[in-house]
Amino acid sequence: MQASFYKVNEHHNLPDQPGVYKYYNEAGELIYVGKAKSLKKRVSSYFVKATGLNHKTRRMVKEIIKIEIALVNSEFDALLLENNLIKQNQPKYNILLRDDKTYPYLLVTDEHFPQIYPTRRMQAGKGTYYGPFASVKAMNNVLELIRSIFTVRTCRLDLSPEKIREEKYKVCLEYHLGNCLGPCEGHQKEKDYLKDIEQAKHILKGNLALAKNFFKDKMQEEAEKLAFEKAQYFKQKLELLEKYQAKSLIANPSIRDLDVFAIVTDEKCAYVNFLKIINGSVIITKTVELKKKLDETESELLLTAIVRLRDQFQSNASEIIINIPLDEEYEGLNISVPKIGDKKKLIDLSLKNAKYYKQEKLLASGEVKDKKFRVLKQLQSDLSLKDMPDHIECFDNSNIQGTNPVASMVCFLNGKPAIKEYRHYHIKTVEGPNDFASMTEVVGRRYKRLMEEDKPLPKLIVIDGGKGQLSSSVIALKELGIYGKVPIIGIAKRLEEIYFPEDQFPLHIDKKSESLRLLQRIRDEAHRFAITFHRNIRSKKAFGTELTKVEGIGKQTAEKLLKHFKSIKKIREAKEEEFLELIGEARTKKLLEWLENEKSG
């Protein structure tokens, strides 16, 4: 492979051969990397037909000062080199995978009695890395399987033969629990330990069939010897493998190693899903977003994703299936578009994932209209409601340190707060701090009033609290004869658990779900409203006590003032005429003097 530099006006001198071209700007920055079957034709197309280019490409062409090329043997080699150069340099006009995660790997160390542990850093010479895994959960599932089947050590000790002979170590708790066979004290031979590691490597490669055959053979071998306890031991290991495989998404046992890609696009981005199939099981599923830079075609975007995702997840599957045909064929890539059968079903599954990812991204960005209805429909689905909850009411109690118990009700219409419908409640029938009885009272008062006024009931009632507050609210609904007609749930603060009446177990909605965020917002608003009301009442009481210290103003007059003006702020802002009409000349004079002193003090 050779590299050569050209000036922009020398593009017609480029060779008619496959290779990679790199564009540089005046500052010497690499701004674009491309591949070509014919460097001469491809690069010239940017300059000879400049008028037919889109505005983004024309803007890039204006920046080009220097061209560098590298010749390769085939178009497929150009594709791989282009991917490496883009990954290393990330030029501003190239398509980039919008994914900055550092993925986890499982490392099988290169040492005596190898360890298997997770890492995100790849260091040459430490051992063999397996992965990357699309998520920590997926990695932990595999690691847990290996540790449940094999007695692989979890310590980081140097178990060289010399250290073991010198009796440097003592067995730990893992040995006594049966999770390790104690190689540190010489209780296990290294050749036996390495047999387990060999089988673990098959699992890490996704080759469960080899590991299953190993345990089947061992089980039959021991059974023939009439060593039934040992046969049972290997049977249990085999069952663990089969249970794990059953949890995996099975495509078809007849389908061997295969990579599946599906793409959906919009004006700005493309969304590509990747399914990695090994021995009929989906072992990796990953969806990425690619931002368009130069109005690339779907084919170009998909090809970019194929090369980079296969590189990222170290896939060397000989067959690739996709949902749209590519513009060109590439020798070295066995790519097809299945129309029927099990492979078409895999394409449909991959496409479903890509579409879902696109929908979630657009929702999160706010680009989808009527988002509030989508969230409400999602909430309806999550809670299995008969109707979309476009009218939600939420209740909360407040009695800080047991004083002045009050409650609040907030109302959300079409997913937005309807502040005019908010209500405050003084607790009338309950003495002392009793959240359960208070909730029964205010829920009963609210819906008795709505029924008397013939107003519509909400589509969902939310109670800020767990099973106790929810049960208390249900009592009120039963007394009114509307229990079962209006859905009611409780939301507990600590774990964000959703409780349903008469259901022992709570519902856990995905923490990232927009429907849960809506419930949290409503709950938090009810809490804020209740706390604010409670503080105002305490302030009024404190202010009322201060008023009674004014000469001529007793408890009744103070209450009269607070009742009339509604708030302390309005009393301080009131005019003399208002006081004269309410409490007379003598008391007004004393009150104004006291307010003036309070203001200056």
UniProtKB/TrEMBL annotation:
UniProt keyword DNA repair, yes or no: yes
GO biological process: nucleotide-excision repair; SOS response
Entry keyword set: Cytoplasm, DNA damage, DNA excision, DNA repair, Excision nuclease, SOS response
UniProt domain UvrC family homology region profile: residue ranges: 333-473
Domain GIY-YIG: 16-95
UniProt xrefs under SMART domains: GIYc (SM00465), HhH1 (SM00278)
GO MF entries: DNA binding; excinuclease ABC activity
Any Pfam family: GIY-YIG
CDD domains on file: GIY-YIG_UvrC_Cho (cd10434)
A single Gene Ontology CC term: cytoplasm
InterPro entries xref list: GIY-YIG_endonuc (IPR000305), GIY-YIG_endonuc_sf (IPR035901), GIY-YIG_UvrC_Cho (IPR047296), Hlx-hairpin-Hlx_DNA-bd_motif (IPR003583), RuvA_2-like (IPR010994), UVR_dom_sf (IPR036876), UvrABC_protein_C (IPR050066), UvrC (IPR004791)
Compartments (UniProt record): Cytoplasm
Top-level taxon in the UniProt lineage: Bacteria
Keyword DNA damage: yes
Region forming the signal peptide: none
Chain's role: The UvrABC repair system catalyzes the recognition and processing of DNA lesions. UvrC both incises the 5' and 3' sides of the lesion. The N-terminal half is responsible for the 3' incision and the C-terminal half is responsible for the 5' incision.
Matching PANTHER family: UVRABC SYSTEM PROTEIN C, UVRC/OXIDOREDUCTASE
Subunit and partners: Interacts with UvrB in an incision complex.
Family classification: Belongs to the UvrC family.
Protein name (record): UvrABC system protein C
Species annotation: Mongoliibacter ruber
